[in-house]
Structures are given as C-alpha cells and as structure tokens.
Amino acid sequence: MEEDFREKVPGLKDEKGWISEELAKYHAQKLGLPVYKIHDSIRHKTTKAKKFEPPHPGTSYNPSLQDHQKLISDIVEKEEKIIKEEKHLKRVTTQMFRKVTAEERQTQHLKEMSAGMDDDDDEDDDDDDNENEEGNKDKKSGKKGGEENADDSAAYSTVNPPVENKKKSKAARNRELRQKELQKKLEAKKALKKQIADLNRIKSIKSEVLAEEEELNEAMKRRKKAEFKKKFETKRLGRLKFNEPDQDVNMPDELAGNLRNIQTGTSLLIDRFKNFQKRNILPVSVATGKQKKPKVKRFPRSSHKEPGVSYQMLRDKRMAEKKAAQQAAK
User: Fold this and answer.
1) How far apart are CA 244 and CA 284, in angstroms?
2) Which of 126, 148, 232, 322 shows the greatest Cβ crowding within 10 Å of its Cβ?
3) Largest Cα–Cα distance of the chain, in whole Å?
4) Could you tell me where the beta strands, DSSP code E, fall in the chain?
5) Which sequence ranges are marked TM in the entry (predicted)?
6) CA 184 from centroid of its chain's CA atoms
7) Among the listed residues 39, 100, 61, the one whose alpha carbon sits nearest the alpha carbon of residue 235
8) What is the rounded end-to-end Cα distance, in angstroms, of the chain?
C-alpha cells in the first residue's frame, strides 16, 4: 500500500478530510519539505524470474546418461519448432509465387495486354455485316409500313385497351374477409403452439443458458489468467525484445569427464547480463563492437610555443620520444 507523506509531516494530515492531498503537497513544496513520487513498480515485483537459476543437470562436465539425453531431446524439440515456423513463413510468403525469368515475364505481359484484340476485330466485321442487313430490311419494311398506314388512316385505334371498372361483388368481398379471418386464426394458433413448445422445453433452454454462462465464465478466467501471467513477463524496456538465450550443450564426443578439459560455451558475465535483462533491470541491447575513434590532429597554440620553435621541430621531438618509449618497452 502506498505510504502517505502527510503522516510524517505534522499539521498536514487532517482527520476530518479538510486538507486534501494536493493542498498538502503544495504547502510541503512551499515549505521546502521533500515530496517524492515513487513508481508503483518499486512496491511490487514486475517479474517472477529468479536471481539465480540452477543449470540443467545435463550441462555438467560429467552428467548422467538420462540427464544428458533429456537435455539433447529438449534442444532438438526446440530447434524443430523453430525450423517448422521458418518453413511455414517461407511457404506462405516466398513459395506462394511462381518464379519466372525476365523473358517469360515480358512475353506474359505482352500476351495479357494483347488479349482480346483478335476477337474485337472479328466482332467489328460481324457488326458491319449485321448493320448492312438491318439497313436493307428497314428500307423494305418502311415501304410496306407506308402502304399499311395509308389503308388504316380512316379507322381510329388506341395502343392500350380501354380501362374497365371491374368492381368486386358482395360475395367475393365476403369470401376475402373470411380468408383474412382464417389467416389470423392460423397465425394465432401457430403462436400458441410455439409458446407451448417453449414452455415444454424450459429445461433445455435453461441448460443452454447455463452452458453459455459457464463458457463465458471460463473465457473470463482464461483472460484473467493470461493477464496475470503477462504482468510478470519480461517487459520491453527499449527498442528490442528479450529472447531467451540458447541452452549450452556438449555433444557426447565433447564430454571430457574433468573440469580441466571441458569446453566452455558461455561466460558468467554474459549469463548475469542476460539475467538482468530478463528481470527488467537492463534494456535489451546489441553488441556493436569496438568503435573507432577519429584521429584528431592537435597543434599547440602559438602563445604556448617557445620562440624560435617550429611545428616540425615539435613533431620530430614527439616522434623521438615515442621511439625511445617503444625501445624501452622492448
């Protein structure tokens, strides 16, 4: 629980609640009293990683057969999982597309761009022939139509038939009314039947509701468990994400049986450094190697030189001192 700084300063803690925490903090700052804001992560652990994890028994310089085989099987299983993931990524990315040469790509592009051009030419020729035939037919039909219009000009006729006001008889309206009443009765009967069926399956509905509620509770428990587990996982403090280092293992032909001839795979400093990263103490970093320092050419100031001494004389003096130091070291 967070400790209230007002309890240490007399006069800032009010039992009745008249003095708020903000007002007390303001007065404490004005009076020159130290007010520190502590992060919540200091009061509780952010990871369950141990400070020191005992090594696997199979990594001993003289392990038992079962421990050594178990270590090798665990490493093989882990490597197979990594290889499987890499194959999956390669299958869904690189191998999804067919590899073609530049010439094949060019010919395929030309074929796709010119697709349908021959068919369009044939269709244009067919359209021209059809238009000519239709033009001849229209001319002939125009002549015949003119003659027919001249004959029928005397008689008047409409395109649509005349509208007739057909009213329903009383018997037809009664039949329609009886059909509507019968339809209402059937719908009411169906609704009543559905209600009775629902009442009969109350137990099954209750079991379905309970099953759904249980499933939701299980999902909530899994979610809370995942959140609680994530709370103690290694956090990403920087740009890079922490990855577990590879397990050290010696093959059967590399086992020496004594500490003098054993082959060391890692160092204690690297192990402690990785442990600090795992426990959220240090951010994950990458070894950049030795950085080259630029060579800076230095010159003494004119005010610091003795009169009559040139830069070349100073350089020769430095080179002579350097050569003498090298000879003395030998």
Assistant:
1) 11
2) 232
3) 140
4) none
5) none
6) 56
7) 39
8) 66
Tell the burial category of 250 from Cβ atoms under 10 Å away from its Cβ (0-12, 13-18, 19+): buried
Do the beta carbons of residue 12 and residue 19 sit within 8 Å? yes
The pair of three-digit structure tokens given for residue 51, joined into one six-digit string: 């400070």
DSSP 55: P
Amino acid (one-letter) located at 137: K
Rounded (10°) angle between helices 202-231 and 170-200: 60
Give the pLDDT band of residue 273 (cuts 50, 70, 90).
very high
What pLDDT band is residue 284 in, cutting at 50, 70 and 90? very high
Structural contact between residues 7 and 13, judged by C-beta atoms closer than 8 angstroms: yes
Structure tokens given for 199: 């009442």
Report the alpha-carbon distance of residue 280 to residue 233 in Å, rounded: 9
**What single letter denotes the amino acid at residue 44?**
H
Report the C-alpha gap between 13 and 5 in whole angstroms.
Answer: 9
- 98-144 pLDDT, tens digit per residue, is 778 888 888 988 888 888 777 666 666 666 666 666 666 555 555 55
Provide the whole-model pTM.
Answer: 0.48
Q: What is the mean pLDDT of the segment spanning 215-239? A: 91
For residues 236 and 278, is the Cβ–Cβ distance under 8 A?
no
pLDDT digits (tens, 9 = 90+) for 172-214: 999 999 999 999 999 999 999 998 888 888 888 889 999 999 9
Phi-psi region of 257 (alpha: psi -120 to 50; beta: other; left: phi over 0): left
| Single-letter code of the amino acid located at 190 | K
Q: Which residue has the tokens 């030795």?
A: 290
